[in-house]
Design brief:
Length: 110
Amino acid sequence: MSDTPKDVSQMTLEEKREQVITALRDVYDPEIGLSVVELGLVREVDVQPDRLHVVMIMTTPFCPYAPQLLEQSRRTAQEAIGLPTTIEVGMTPWDPSMAEEGVLSDWGLF
């Protein structure tokens, strides 16, 4: 297996989806210090041949960092696979069980 990254243009839609999720691991909630992926805020990544759409939720409806997190996530996703990207705020309320297993253990939640 080669260590050379695969050219995005040669990736399947599912590989592109995984590439986006991996890239979003670098977007951190500044208050909590965990990535939007670790927190379970990324609810949907829909990759089409000509566009990308991401649905995210916030940990609270009144998150002061929501605009920053959404735009940073949109830019990061767009740069990851080079497709025009839209981002949508989902209406599902966040709860700690949505986070990846073990990431909230320091918070005493799981």
